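User: Just a sanity check before I run the rest of the batch. Below are the structure tokens for the first item. I only need the designed sequence back.
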């Protein structure tokens, strides 16, 4: 497996500094948070996109994915959601990134069947654009669909190879799933895995990997048992927890922790 970290952990950091961190600490790739407050977002022009792609190529670091905020099960008209998603897919294509992350985002209290059908319809429509670009859309286990069992209700309706799953290990754990259950549900669709650590279900302030309660050992074990080969991406939510320790000083130990888990599971 290859290791990456998300720029959610270094909000606003310029691309050259992100690349310097990845290189210094032995990460193979970076998940780019696509938001207007970040250096990389859908508003970038063609020349800027070319420059970002060239910087990553020169550094030998992969852009593992584009982390968007499109909520595919949200209420409202389809077209604004699809426009945003197409913009993210175009950005990923221009940067040679294989994945675009989306959220479910169903409104609280909305009937489950309606939310599932809305998400599946939008993902199915966007899948054709994704296929033409060679980019895969990944529905993250998050918010209204936080478990593997939740996600596959949508993915099963879509039934398109360009639409898959992103396993966020915190959300499946908060949803009461064991890692073996999450993997069994998501395996046919799995694009990559987001790892992190927290103190408890009531305190989700980010911690160094291995310092909290999330079942990272079990997650890596189940992936290795099934010979899964893909990305482990550390999503350290510094943007939402300003008091959390800075990610750069944790990256080296985080990579060592993941490498140790992989070695022990082998």
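Assistant: Here's the designed sequence for the first item:
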């Amino acid at each position: 497996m290859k290791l990456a970290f998300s720029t959610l952990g270094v909000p606003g950091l310029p691309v050259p500094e992100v690349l310097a961190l990845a290189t210094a600490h032995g990460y193979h790739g970076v998940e780019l948070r696509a938001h207007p407050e970040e250096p990389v977002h859908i508003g970038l022009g063609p020349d800027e996109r070319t420059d970002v792609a060239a910087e990553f190529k020169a550094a030998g670091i992969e852009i593992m994915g584009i982390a968007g905020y499109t909520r595919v099960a949200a209420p409202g008209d389809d077209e604004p959601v699809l426009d945003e998603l197409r913009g993210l897919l175009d950005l990923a294509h221009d940067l040679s990134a294989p994945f675009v992350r989306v959220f479910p985002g169903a409104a609280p209290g909305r009937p489950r069947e309606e939310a599932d059908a809305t998400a599946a319809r939008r993902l199915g429509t966007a899948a054709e654009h994704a296929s033409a670009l060679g980019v895969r859309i990944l529905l993250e286990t998050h918010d209204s669909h936080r478990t593997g069992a939740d996600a596959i209700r949508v993915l099963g309706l879509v039934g398109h190879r360009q639409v898959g799953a992103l396993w966020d290990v915190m959300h499946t754990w908060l949803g009461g799933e064991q890692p073996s259950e999450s993997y069994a549900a998501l395996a046919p669709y799995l694009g990559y895995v987001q790892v992190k650590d927290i103190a408890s279900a009531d305190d989700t302030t980010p911690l160094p990997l291995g310092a909290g309660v999330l079942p990272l050992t079990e997650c890596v074990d189940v992936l290795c048992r099934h010979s899964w080969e893909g990305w482990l991406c550390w999503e350290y939510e510094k943007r939402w927890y300003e008091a959390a320790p800075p990610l750069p000083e944790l990256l080296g130990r985080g990579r060592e922790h993941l490498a140790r888990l992989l070695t022990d599971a082998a």
